[in-house]
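User: Before I run my own analysis I want an independent prediction to cross-check against. Here's the chain; please return only the structure tokens and, at the end, one sentence I can use as a sanity check.
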Amino acid sequence: MSEIPARAAGPRRTPDEIVWQSSPPGSIYDYIKVAAFSIGPDGTVDQWSERAERLFGVCAEDVVGRDPVEAFVPPRLRGQGHRKLAEILDGREWTGIVPFRLPARQDPAARGTTLGEGPDPIAADKGPGGAESGSGGAGSASGCLPAREGVAEIYVMPTRTEDGDPAAVCIAVDVRTLHGVETDLAASQAIFGQSPFGFVLFGTDLRIRRVNERFASVFGRPAAKHQGLGAGDYLVPAQRDRLEAALRHVLEKGGALNDLSLTGTPPGESQPRHWSLDLYRVHSGTGRPLGVAALATDVTRRQAAAREAASARRNLALLNEAGSRIGNSLDLETTARELLDVAVPGFCDLASVDLYQALLLGDEQAPGMADGSAELRRVAFASAVSDVLPFLRQRQGGGAAPGTGGPTPGTGGPARPVPPVSTPPPPRTESPAATLRESPAEVSPEERMREWSASPAGPFTVGRPSAPGEGRRERGRPWYGYGPGPEEARRHGAGAGSVDVGAVHRYPSDSPRARVLRTARPELLPGTDGDLVQSTLAVPMVAHDKVVGLAQFARTKGSEPFGERDRSVATELATRAAVFIDNARLYRREHERALLLQRSLLPPGEPEAAGLDIACRYLPGNEATEVGGDWFDVIELPGHRTALVVGDVMGRGLRAAAAMGELRTAVRTLALLDLEPAEVLSHLDEIAQGLGSPQQTTRAARQDQDTDLAEVYLATCVYAVYDSVTRRCTFANAGHLPPVLLEPSGAHRPALLLDVPPGMPLGVGGEPFEEVTVELPEGALLALYTDGLVESRHQPLDEGLLAFRNALTDPGRSLEDICDQVLRRLDTHHGEDDIALLMARVQGLPEENVGDWTLPRDPQSVGKAREYTREQLAGWDLEALADTTELLVSELVTNALRYGDGEIRLRLLLDRSLVCEVWDEGLVQPRRRRAKDTDEGGRGLQLVGLLAASWGSRRTPHGKTVWFELGLPDGESSGVDAAEALLSLF
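Assistant: Structure tokens:
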């Protein structure tokens, strides 16, 4: 290779200080092949350099001593060549283009030798006797390569030898290589200067060596002004370190690095730009690294389009998630929290839901709702950031927070839960080079977290409580909520808009949020200086053309601002949630009304019955479950008998509660008619069939018309009539669970399921009901219940019945304790269905409290009846009732003799009242009528109605029974004077 002085890396040196070195990187001689040789006085080659060997492919031993014209010039030009050579030897300089021809030479593989760095020399270019052999044939048997022709530019300088003979020094350059270099240089210049992409060439010291016009135009300076600058003059520290690390990697490892992303803001612009850099190492002709070339492409629009596409996909996914997660519960607060769980942190950093207090209380026309100033209740709040701002203000004595954390711009998401950095960003300064400035997210969240954790103020919990009042709260700091803005808060004398979940507040009628509620149009509300919130989207919650509340979505400073697409997404989220919240509100109102109706229809207080100790429990389902149609009742019947009823209307809600009320009323009415249990259920069956079709009152009409299944009311019911005198209980069942009986000696064995034919549920129709009469032991426990007690989603019916029977272990305990024990031991808190439990302990009427006589059909039986009555009342120490009772007994016995058939039976029963019954075999029921003033008779039943507390008649299997009841002297009922009652009839 040629020897040239080394270029000075520092200040200019004197010629004596120049250091000569071999092959400096980047030399032009690495690309332009320059060869030197000399011609002696005899016109032959006397010196042949190594460069000449590589250029012409001929070794010195094959050229020295030969005529260069004869050796290299084609035969047709040799004459002209000899003339030029003669002129040169005469002392004339010459420069020109000389075509040359290399003779055929031996293939290096066949010859087996090489020479230096160039190709193998010519093997045999002379024929026998030293004559040229001419052109060698390609692919000859001797292994010669074909001859080739070329063009060289030669500069010939005359000289003289030591003896003074004329000679010449020749310098030759391959014209083809020179033209290639010129072409490549022109193309490189065109590409470098006209490229629409920024091009930067970094040296091995990572300083800029050259930039193109595109790069220079972006930063507003001539290209020459960028030479010698480094990455730190253009980029902020974080981006600078990334670029320098990449440059070092490419410079040391070689290869290429594609799509290196850098972000910054050119001077004179406010929005950051994004570039994609492709880096590759460049080399000299000898393979030495010269530096790193960088091709920069502005991808700001591409990234903006990518962000838009990502935002659209994210919003679509957010709406899909909202469709699957919002509205899964009929609980109002749960639905509001589901909305915030979807929105935070996927859409915003802070969110809250306020609902009109009046709507929650059932008043849909409350004052202030028209102008948006009505009271609101904060039902839900969620935050993806900690309570940074209040805590920093507290630490700084009420000052504004110095900074907040946020995500990388362009991600399209809300701020990440990163505490603020207490140090401000570096100030903007001008440098000789146009510089890029740091965007708010250039410091990574991890660095911010580490810096904050190391500071005296940090760290503290980041997140939001899962429910009001829950969640980790360090150092006693309240969670940061937001409600009225600072101006609105100042009007009310409140803090910086903090509203607790469950608190009731209001917005002034002229505030932006009240305007949102009034106009039902969303608005973007900017944040204030020193506030954590950058902006808030206030969105009305509209359901069924009614504004039910306000949803607020806020993003903290450092997050991407809300756009029009975000406004549409927020409106869609709020609308979806509003519909479900309004449905939950309506459901809650219906649930409360149904529960109120159901409770109003249940027996008030503790029911009492003759010969029975009663205890009952009713547990409604949870708020997420509609009110069912479970009910129970205790009905006192004549003759110290009691009807026990437990039923369950299939279905839920207000309609089921209303149907239960109708059936309960019908049961009480039928029970007071003193019908047999099977007859009561038969009538109830017809009534249940008519509940779903109120306009079809006849049985034929109901059978002819197809009834809508949604309007069909089915119910199960067990109806039992207990006679305290005989301790017999008659059961009839309409598809209900069987009664459970625990005998007095059942402490060591489980309770029994009474074998009562279940029958068909009420409302099905077409099937008769059967009766079963069971004599109950004294002290036994009888339990009637609904399926909610023994059956749930996680407990089969058989297991529930067994658990219920095993829970009844001690019949001697108080009924209240037994009821509580049953509810504790069974799974009664699942809330899937209502639970009704009715328990009764059998306490039969003692024999000494019963007087029973049989009277013949004889007029003298009236006197006998009065005599038996007076003696029995005297034995019971009830002489005060003797006159009235004798008078009424004589009237009933007289009616039995006059209008009845068969023998007459008189029975007196003493319990909480005195009951007198007169039996006969006649089927005609007595009918009370008002006698005229001129009538001599017809006033007996009127007298009974005046003197008795109550009276009536009922059918029996063998006739009828007429009865009356009198209150005891020390009881709550006061008697009526018999003389005054007689006088009142006339």
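Sanity check: The chain has 26 helices and 35 strands.
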